[in-house]
Amino acid sequence: MGSAEFWVLVAFVLFVALLVYVGAPAKIVAALDSRANKIKAELDEARALREEAAQVLADYKRKRAEAETEAQAIVEAARKDAVAYAADAKAKAEEFVARRTRAAEQKIALAESQAVAEVRAAAADAAVAAAEKVLSGQAKGELGDNLFDKGLSEVRAKLN
């Protein structure tokens, strides 16, 4: 019994017995179980967060797709409105030009008729003046006055 290995063995057995008596293995197992439960809880929380993040990502992708669709619809509506406004503006411009053209044509026709009337009046005045000079030289007295009045009334009747 005097060997050192024997006493090391006895000390080791007593140490292990003391640890078992104090409950060290149960505490170690409880600590390991507690640590395992913490890790499991953290993993569960990480999975839940990952699933939530995936759901949020899917929601954002869906909202983005909806926003893009809405933006395309708005752009298309704006294009249609622009085409309609352009067509309306073109129609109004054409109508304006047509009205202005008609007004100009009417003014031209009025000016033309006035010019013709003025030319006729000037021609009639010239004819009357010429007839007066010719007749005054040839017909004098009452015969000249009668011829002048008759010619003047004929010219006026024809011009009107």
Automatic annotation (TrEMBL):
Chain segments annotated as transmembrane: 6-30
Location relative to the cell: Cell inner membrane; Cell membrane
Membrane topology, record value: Single-pass membrane protein
Coiled coil (residue ranges): 29-77
Origin: domain of life: Bacteria
A matching Pfam family: ATP-synt_B
Primary localisation category: membrane
Keywords: ATP synthesis, Cell membrane, CF(0), Coiled coil, Hydrogen ion transport, Ion transport, Membrane, Transmembrane, Transmembrane helix, Transport
Function: F(1)F(0) ATP synthase produces ATP from ADP in the presence of a proton or sodium gradient. F-type ATPases consist of two structural domains, F(1) containing the extramembraneous catalytic core and F(0) containing the membrane proton channel, linked together by a central stalk and a peripheral stalk. During catalysis, ATP synthesis in the catalytic domain of F(1) is coupled via a rotary mechanism of the central stalk subunits to proton translocation. Component of the F(0) channel, it forms part of the peripheral stalk, linking F(1) to F(0). The b'-subunit is a diverged and duplicated form of b found in plants and photosynthetic bacteria.
Subunit structure: F-type ATPases have 2 components, F(1) - the catalytic core - and F(0) - the membrane proton channel. F(1) has five subunits: alpha(3), beta(3), gamma(1), delta(1), epsilon(1). F(0) has three main subunits: a(1), b(2) and c(10-14). The alpha and beta chains form an alternating ring which encloses part of the gamma chain. F(1) is attached to F(0) by a central stalk formed by the gamma and epsilon chains, while a peripheral stalk is formed by the delta and b chains.
Similarity field: Belongs to the ATPase B chain family.
Protein's UniProt name: ATP synthase subunit b
Protein species of origin: Chelatococcus sambhunathii
